[in-house]
Amino acid sequence: MSKKNILITGGFGLxxxxxxxxxxSNKYNVFILDKKKNFFKKLELNIRKKNIIIGNYLNxxxxxxxxxxxxxxxIFHTGATTQVLxxxxxxxxxxxxxxxxxxxxxxxxxxxxxxxxxIFSSSDKAYGEVKSKSYKxxxxxxxxxxxxxxxxxxxxxxxxxSKVYNLKVGILRCGNLYGxxxxxxxxxxxxTIISALMNKNIIIRxxxxxxxDYLHVSDAANAYFLxxxxxxxxxxxxxxxxxxxxxxxxxxELVKKILNIINNQKTKxxxxxxxxxxIKFQKLNFNKITKELKWKQKINMDEGLKNxxxxxxxxxxxxxxxxxxx
Length: 326
Description:
Elements: E1 5-9, H1 14-25, E2 29-34, H2 39-45, E3 52-54, H3 60-69, E4 74-77, H4 84-89, H5 91-112, E5 117-121, H6 146-165, E6 168-174, E7 176-178, H7 188-197, E8 202-204, E9 211-216, H8 217-233, E10 238-243, E11 248-250, H9 251-262, E12 269-271, H10 287-292, H11 301-314, H12 316-322
Parallel strand pairs: 1-2, 1-4, 2-3, 4-5, 5-6, 6-10, 7-9, 8-12
Antiparallel strand pairs: 9-11
């Protein structure tokens, strides 16, 4: 295939937006499907109105029409219910969005054109609790919590469709993503930054000891781009990679690092420890993607956090108005 028409589900989200910018800069014709209009993402993307589709990927007729009319060659499925706490509160919604939404897209590809590349945004959470020092791609998927299990199920379903129906499927299991423009204020990085900028106490819902890989979203977007290029010419239809990080930190370590960069001495850290239904330790082995796709982490943690903090400082007043920060 030459230059392609690409569809990104959840395209106004943190990952989707950065994928759009990377693909657009490489002269691909990119369409965004998202349920919500988002003033920040839209303004920053420099995207034409005709390339924005407001709608839900659970609507099979809609996605079928989009794929056919826009002649889509590749789909990046980044749309999902992403919050662990939201998933705990509403598992049915999470399973519907994350599992059945993925099935709707795979079914559309199966029915329309099996040559369409489908790249699924899985997660390190799909593995469940780590049983060794780190996860490898062949580690069993054993999640139990709702968000984690939704990713496990969707991940396995993608593998099934690839093997049974001969679809070209790529799966990336990333660590925790952060970066400029994340408007989900229940995520630890934006929540900490906004609290620190307002000199408000930072409430940590866990015991502060949960350990995760933290990866700048630009590095993640590059991994998706490299995987797409691999699938264009790969003989094997199914490609699975971990996208981990050199920076494996506890929640408390991350919060302190952000406060140090902001140089905030006033904000207090309060550990509530009422969120106990989460994986305690996660670490991804990402040797495979480094070796096979030549991917590497380009943005170090301090640099990544600094450019993220700068974005929130720049947009602070608008954020207060638009997403009701108080």
